Amino acid sequence: MRILKIVFATMLLGLSLACTPEHLQSTFDPKGPIARDQGYLFEILFWAMAAVFVVVQTGLVYTIIRYRRKSENELPKQVHGHDKLEIAWTIAPIFVLAAVAIPTVSMIFEHDDIPTNKPKIEVIAEGYQWWWGFEYTDENINVITANELHIPTDTVINVSLKSENVIHSFWIPKLAGKMDLVPNNNNSMWFIADEPGEYYAQCAEYCGTSHANMKFKVYVHDQAGFDEWVENEQKSANASLIECTSADANCSGLAAKGAYIFANKKFSGVIRGQQVDNQMCAACHTVAGMKIRGNAGPVLTHIASRTTIASGIYDNTEENLTSWITDPKNMKPGVYMPTLNFEEGDVEALVAYLQTLR
Amino acid sequence: MAANSGSLPRFLERPTSYTTGVWGWITTVDHKKIGIMYGFTAIFFFLLGGLEAVVIRSQLAFAGNEIVSPDIYNQLFTMHALTMIFLAIMPLAVTFFNLIVPLQIGARDVAFPRLNALSYWIYLSGGLLLNAGWILGGAADSGWFAYAPLTLDQYGSGGRGMDFYSLGLLVLGVSSVAGGLNFLVTIINMRAPGMTLMRMPVFTWMAFITSILLVTAMPVITIALIELALDRILGTQFFAPGAGGDPLLWQHLFWVFGHPEVYILILPAMGIVSEVLPTFSKKPLFGYPFIIFSGIFIGFMGWAVWSHHMFTVGMGPVANATFAITTMLIAVPTGVKIFNWIGTMWGGSIDFKTPMLFSIGFVFLFIIGGLSGVSHAAPPSDYQQQDTYYIVAHLHYVLFGGAIFGIFSGIYYWWPKFSGKLLNENLGVIHFALLFIGMNMSFGPMHWLGMDGMPRRIYTYGAEYGWEFWNTVSTIGSYIIALGTIVFIVNVFYTMRQERRTDLADPWDGRTLEWSIPSPVPEYNFKEIPIVNGLDSFWDTKYSTDEQGYMTPIPQGASDDNQEDEEVDIHMPGLSYFPFITGIGLSVSGFGFAIYSQFNVVGLTVAIVGILATFFGAYGWCFEPADPEDHH
Description:
The structure holds two protein chains of two kinds.
Chain A: H1 2-18, H2 33-66, H3 83-110, E1 120-128, E2 131-136, E3 143-146, E4 148-152, E5 156-163, E6 168-172, E7 176-181, E8 187-191, E9 197-202, E10 215-221, H4 223-234, H5 239-242, H6 254-264, E11 267-271, E12 274-279, E13 308-309, E14 314-315, H7 318-326, H8 328-331, E15 339-340, H9 346-354
Parallel strand pairs in A: 1-5, 4-10
Antiparallel strand pairs in A: 1-2, 2-3, 5-8, 6-7, 9-10, 11-12, 11-15, 13-14
Chain B: H1 2-6, H2 21-26, H3 31-60, H4 70-104, H5 113-131, H6 161-189, H7 202-234, H8 247-281, H9 288-301, H10 317-329, H11 331-345, H12 354-375, H13 379-385, H14 389-419, H15 425-451, H16 468-496, H17 537-542, E1 543-545, E2 551-553, H18 578-595, H19 600-623
Antiparallel strand pairs in B: 1-2
């Protein structure tokens, strides 16, 4: 009996530690109807299977204890089968399965229809190796950002999922289960967030060297907060510095120097074994308002207003930005951003500039 | 033809003299010797795959651990899966097909002994080819499922591993199809007189169903692998999205193969368990026809569920609902098997010898793996579980708790039949206990990690996610499994040093024909082909039942063991070099193509040499005299 008690205590400890809703990506803490329904279905399945588990394993354990060999001379009755029993245990599971198949199938079709009684926002989520691009296509929003998705509460977020490289999977455990981004096969999914907050999300389909580092965050605001965010995003950040395309006198200061470098100074470097020559930062990164709009890397228009860099893996601090720009492959293995031949002071200026892009 | 073969060059003659030594093994066509080579090779690869697993678990033991680089980690989890599936579990199943099926059906060998040897040599060399990437520019690193287009160079890590993947698996596929055909023909044609299909032992039945799956599933992956190899080596565009190629084409081809493959892995273990449970319960298998037909149904339904691996690729509600229901249906025949296994033990006299412990462990763990499978048969629930550690937990309960436990059960059960030695029982019990505890500790917490949002195939995670505790527990569990495996290896070496015993023809009071002949089995297996009068006909020579159905021993006459020394002149198939030459040649050509993109001229030369060797081998094979004596 003492062993049983220890087993039970361990199981309880396990369950309480396992159902840790406070964990960042726990599926036991749904914050929207899609994740809640999916969790609900899991619970139905879990308890149905737990019941089957208890019945069958009890039967197994009871059998091996009761019929253990007590003497070498035992001569048991030779039973070859029992047709009625066979029919019973063929049919019984069918009932259990029907009981879980019905809510399963109805939920599949229910979630296929986008609710029409709520406002709706269209977002394109595009997967890259290894970061996320987000584009709000509704005319009144029309914002492009990266790695941090901002949405209002109680609104249908209809996400179109696109990739032009490998397959990724879009997954916000507390808001919605995952859906893949498959090249040449555009998918879509929708979800709703109940309450404001910060939600962790992560690519779930293995996508190469830095698959583990392809994260993003979802910020859920109330409507006013969201509108405010949109308004800020729609402005081109720090417009005056963007004009600094030449080293003219009005543009003094470190940040201005950084803006100039960003848009004009050409560097060389190596990307994944290939030499790249004469490229400026803007060849790959867009800052709205500049003439050159590169799109190989994340949009940086409001980089300073983001909490993280490198698709959710580092806090957005001066120190991390400096390390990142100096040698990105050291911060994110396999990264496509080259390590460039900066001169003394270049990185400092670039960081100063990026930190003005609120 | 005799005149023609007489004019062949000397080295094409059929060898006659090698019965021992290295050449004896290289030229053998004896199903038992081939089975033993399969077994030891597969155990070697099992240890290699296990070592990879231990490194993977060590990396994940703590948040932010840096034991291996991400690229090495990705190679490790890819090669761990490939090694365990294609080089350990499948060949271990084939080991038992080789060793047991001819004995259970009362045959002297398989239908095509040389083809059987060819299967082994392709397997050995193909396994090395698959692993060659480790020393030649990186092993395969796109996952064993190798989803397009990550397999193309511009998206991958730049290593050449996927060339070894595509060519290695292509070559191994030849081995599987040849083996599958061989056992199909053997089981259909070479059963002893009186052994109707419904008198066939369950293990042979499962071998039969598995062989059908092998022959039908491998061609599907072969198509996909040829397309992949062409994409990578010759620059075709089957899976390149930029040129309109379709990544989902790969997924469908892969999983149409991949799900039957899952049953290829588990059905042989189910067959082993269905032999062990009755023997150690002193009772016939409960519901024999139901076990057989549920096995057939599982094999058949294996073709109708592949898209449950693809619920999140966006197939739409109708496809997802359909595959959800077909997948749930598989639980019915699986349940029938489990109930019948419990029914077999019910009312029996259960002897907890090591084989029995592993079989009971199989049933216990397979129930868990089967039940957790139902929770991702439902797509909305699966959307949260797909590609998380929950799936890793599920698949290891099925493949480790299931297939590997079944295989160990078989190893302990049949070891004396081929060596005349019993594996040590105490070490066996320790082995089982460590594996059982380690496996639950390693894979149990993964259910919780998955539901806690931990994705698969990540080489690192942050401490802030709260996943560290259970990862540490899981890693300790994997070390316990490793310790258990070491105990097994010690047991094997310890046992091999023991004296051979002569009293082990039937150490477990067995039911099937293999226990009716001496251990180790003579080269010709059966002096006289047995006549079969019913299911368990060997058991019927030892016991009858009284009016109430209780078993009663039949008094045995004087032992006829002394006949063993009699001179017997039984014609056995001759030895041959050609399976070895053909098989190695095939892998050499695969190797040449695999290194072609790195070393053009050398690669092409090696490939041509390999192809010539294959053709030479096949040519010699065709004109080899059926009997060495024909020459003289």
